[in-house]
Amino acid sequence: MTAPVAVFIALAAVAVVSGLNVILRRNPVHSAIFLAFTIVCLAGIFVLLNAEFIAATEVIVYAGAIIVLFLFTMMLLDIRGGMLAHQFQSQTGVAAPVAVLLLICLLGVAIGVFNFSFLPAASISAAKAAQLGSVQNLGQELYSNFLLPFELASLVLTVGLVGAIGLAGRRVEDQEEAERVAEAQAFDAEIRAREGGALEPEDEEPVGAHH
Amino acid sequence: MSDYLWIIPAAPCAAAIINGVLGKKIGKLTAALAIAAVGAAFLVALYVAFGVHLAGEKAAEPIDGAFYQWIVSGSFKVEAGYYIDPLTAVMLIVVTSVSLLVHIYSVGYLADDEGFWRFFCYLPLFTFAMLTLVLANNFLQLFLGWEGVGLCSYLLIGFWYNRKSATDAAMKAFIVNRVGDFGFTIGIILIWLNFGALGFTEVFPQADKIGVGLLTMITLLLFVGACGKSAQIPLYTWLPDAMEGPTPVSALIHAATMVTAGVYMVARMYPLFIHTPITLSVVAWVGGLTAIFAASIGLVQNDIKRILAYSTVSQLGYMFLALGVLVPISGIFHLFTHAFFKGCLFLCAGAVIHSVEHAFHHAEVHEDPQNIQNMGGLRRYLPWTAWTFLAACLAISGIFPFAGFWSKDEILTGAFNNGQFALYAIGLLTAGMTAFYMFREYFLVFEGEPRFDPHRVHPHESPWWMVGPLVILAFLSLVIGAIVGAPPEHGLFRGFLDPSFLHVLPEKEAEAVPLETLVLIGISLIAAFIGIWIAWMMYFRRAWSPQALAARLPRLYDLLFHKWYVDEFYDAAIVQPAVRFANFLWGFDAYVIDGIVNGLGYMTRGVGGGLRGLQTGVVGNYALGIVAGLVAILGSFLLKGLVTG
Amino acid sequence: MDVPLNYALALAAVLFVTGLAGVILRRNILIIFMSVELMLNAVNLQLLAFSRYFGNVNGQIFVFFVLVVAAAEAAVGLAIIVSLVRHYKDSLMADDFNLLKG
Questions:
Q1: What is the C-alpha to C-alpha distance for residues B497 and B484, in angstroms, rounded to an integer?
Q2: Prediction pTM value
Q3: Per-residue pLDDT tens for B92-134?
Q4: How is chain A split into domains, by residue range?
Q5: Angle at which helices B464-485 and B86-109 pack, to 10 degrees?
Q6: pLDDT band of B507, cuts 50, 70, 90
Q7: Which residues are within 8 A (CB) of A43 and not within 5 positions of it... i.e. 6 or more apart?
Q8: Residue B501, pLDDT above cutoff 80
């Protein structure tokens, strides 16, 4: 048992336990925290796999941005109602065995129970592996072979940004509209009361109202 | 001569079409058009007959030609054509003359009827169909005319369609005729299959080439059709009910022309029938039995037209009897004379009904104007009608020297001479019964004291439109027999028709002995006189009471009065089972067929409803579906790998 | 030796199925969403494991882009959830959003 393997097993255990907690907790905030744990553990494992940059990016983006986004959303919505109801779907009886089956299948593949012949035996040299996930190597690839997808990725982020604002933004105009309408009607009533019906009744619709 | 032949069917057809399309607008003018058309046909018929007469011996070869090619379908060719021989000429004369007289009569009879124009559309249409039948030179065209007269009969019987009894009678006539037509159709199909052609000139010479058994079947089937059309046993029940139609219809269709179509057809097909002695005896016996059966019913009926209807059935029986005992010319001669005196009788009955109905209506008497028990003593009110009726009665009873005597006696002597003694006896008995019931009718209607109240009811003589044809027909009934029929076996009529049957009838062995002939004539005259005397005693002198006689034989009277319960028997044996079967089929259609169709619908809906359950709307369920599918596919690949692996 | 390939794959499999179980077992839509993120991470791990094994950096590039898309998707998805809860039905249970029913 070498050191990397031992570290790997430790991190893996924590990751699995955290993952299970993510899906089993009643309180969504707890789930989010456990998700963060899982991310961090995974980041450690990424480092073991010689993907340092990815590990850093993972922590920054996932644990630092996405989880935070989740927590903000939970803050905006009233999540207490969601904690009281039945936590598990009605299809659990069927779903659980299916999930177990899938686990068996995937584990089987992973552990090599089903020995597929197309897996090559050779690996790569340690020296090459060490610089595999370095910033230089990654940057080299990204900016030469994958330039277009890189630019498109920024487009995707922009679209995501605009979409998020457009979807969740409070309809401010509607509220202002309603306030203006109420104001105008109050004004009309006031005038009418003062002048006693001298207003022409042709304008039944309040000013500015259009539906 | 053949240049003008097309006028004969075309004129009435055109009149029918014009009257049908424009009738409502032109009103009374329809009558003028129809009369003109039939008149033209009549003149051409006379011309044709004259031409045939002039041809003499050569008339044995019929003139066979085509108006146009009707059907050309591969090897199946049928023409619309004509076949002129003396038989055709006789029929043409009968049909056109009686039709013309009936047309004229109807102008007066239906003057107040709002269906006037419709009548004068149907009447020439019928004439057209009948003429097509008579002129036909092939089986299919004859059948076309056959069906056409059946259709017109339906239309005309049900002319007053607001009356249920009339529409029922029309349906009955059509359906019973259909039964006969079914046999006829099969006969025609067999002819086509065995002879390969449908034209008379192709079929007749080959008649003896196919087996006798097959030919017997064919001729029997053709005769079934004749039974239907000419109201013989067992398909006669429609004719008495057909009296629901207006009287001119009864006179034309159910006395002179349509019902004689069957007789004409058998006579025309004689080259086929002559080879099948079995069919001929069937024809003779059916004719004879029908004659006496119908006469027995006519003895006790009270409706003025029903008596005449049964008389018609009976006389048609005589004609078939003649055809069956190998004296076809006598049969046709009887057809010829019968057309005139029966036509006269019916038109007289119509005149009586017309007058009595009006008189009852004015006096607000609610009795049946057709029941002879409500009449009596009408000779004082309707003298012309009475005398013409009497003349026709004498003719139909076979009194010398009037028309019926010559024709009926020829049939009886022919039967006797050809050894058919049983049939001769039946015919003789029927002659006596005929004389009896005809004179019973005459005495009850025209003689004695009126059985209605003469102070309230005042019948009037009919207008000359109606009386004119009566006089013409009565005159013909009296004299035509003597003119063309005398002396027996050697008269003009026989000479005219002989060529038609020249190659067909077997050679006559020996001439009938004159003395024997006179004895037979004497016997039949005695039978007629006995019948008249009995009627005289019972209904004129009132010496013997008919009621007492009925009381002495109640069951017999009941049987005769109710027409031997034949209609009731048919209803129970045929109509009710058919109705039940139809109801069963209706139920089958509604429950089984519709059930299957609707059931498919329900099943589809059910399955759809069941499958709807899959659409829960909960996305988690759909996700589970995807995962399950994934597991299945992955698992199957892995298992396959394991197994092969 | 470094971490054997199979160990990493096994871990990835377990995490993936865990995330999947979260999606099909839980009702709370936020937890479902987080389970999806867990699945994405498991995939990332697998990609990196193979990248390391074959010495091909394309795997890491792929993970990079997966990260980008996951971020955008999280933002938009949460915006949708907020919009739904606010304007359609004030509930966090997935069963309540069943307009597709029938």
A1: 11
A2: 0.69
A3: 999 999 999 999 988 888 888 888 999 999 999 999 999 999 9
A4: 1-80
A5: 160
A6: low
A7: A55, A56, A58, A59, A63
A8: no
**Cβ–Cβ below 8 Å for B615 and C32:** no
For the segment A47-65, the average pLDDT, to the nearest whole number, is 92
Q: Please give the structure tokens belonging to residue B43.
A: 């003149």
Second-level CATH architecture of A1-80? Up-down Bundle (1.20)
Contact (CB, 8 A) for B373 and B451:
yes
Selected for mutation to probe chain A from C20, C28, C51, C87 (highest A CB count within 10 Å) is C28
Q: Does ipTM surpass 0.90 in this model?
A: yes
Q: Which of B486, A75, B461, A57 is nearest to C41 (CA)?
A: A57
Can you list the domains of chain C with their CATH numbers?
A: 5-91 (1.10.287.3510)
Kindly state whether A126 is in contact with chain C, defined as any CB-CB distance less than 8 angstroms.
yes
Measured in angstroms, the CA of A17 and the nearest CA of chain B are apart by 23
Mean pLDDT across A124-152: 85
Sign of the Cα pseudo-torsion (B582, B583, B589, B592, in order): negative
Of A102, A114, A115, the CB nearest to B627: A102
pLDDT for the residue numbered C24:
92
C-beta separation of B231 from B259 below 8 A? yes
Output b/e per residue, B323-360; b: 16+ Cβ within 10 A.
Answer: bbbbbbbbbbbbbbbbbbbbbbbbbbbbbbbbbbebbb
Query: Residues with Cβ < 8 Å from B387, sequence gap 6 or more?
Result: B474
Are the beta carbons of B631 and A95 separated by less than 8 Å? Answer: no
Residue B483's nearest CA partner among B498, B468, B494, B469 is: B494
pLDDT at B169 over 60: yes
